[in-house]
Write a structure and sequence with these properties.
By secondary structure, the protein is an alpha/beta fold. The protein is built from 8 helices and 10 strands. The chain has 2 domains: 124 residues, 3-Layer(aba) Sandwich (D-Maltodextrin-Binding Protein, domain 2); 75 residues, Periplasmic binding protein-like II (D-Maltodextrin-Binding Protein, domain 2), CATH 3.40.190.10.
Length: 235
Amino acid sequence: MLTRRLLFIVLIVCVCVAGCSDLPRDPKETLRHAQGGRLRVGLVEHPPWVIRTDGEPAGAEVELVRRFAAELGATPVWHWGGEQQHMEALKHYQLDLVVGGMTDETPWGKYVGLTSPYFEERIKVGVPRSMQPPASVKGTQVAVRSGEAVASDLERKGAAPVRVDDLSQANLPVAAPDWQLEQMGLTPAEIELRTGKHVWAAPPGENGFIKRLDEFLYRHSSEIKGLLQQEVAKR
């Protein structure tokens, strides 16, 4: 009797393991459809992550998407648009992927699938190497790119943001991502204004596809800074 019970338990375990062997799954089979087929990609313009040109799109994330598509044997099909438009399409499985420099703070995370954060970007204040990095920016003029939210962070710290179109031409301390400060030859102060954890967006519930994206992004995470710096250097 005991032997029969043990055999029964082993049989049940084997059945369960076999049934779970292909987890995680894609209810809409996004990964299967993309392999050897088309990868429908929504692009939100956000240099240097995604750059709109007269020809083929450019940018650090566009380059990564090309590499990912190549691994799948897929042809990327680009769709330009705004975040709202693309996320609605993604939510209804009309796109396979959306990129555009987004972070895990996107409110769309409730409605679509997000990869794990693959790159952490710290916005700091940088000064020329000939200067001593300040302990505080209170009462200090700091250059910031026009239209960037980081200007409000500077104001909260008592600084006077100077909005410019080209940070490289500003003869002032600069507020920018750490990778960009490094490229500009500036020394970052220990003043962190904000942090962004970058992610890609995928259709909701397509866990097998997201797992494949996570694995790809993890393998290429050490290259992100260089890709961003290359794109800025080209412009």
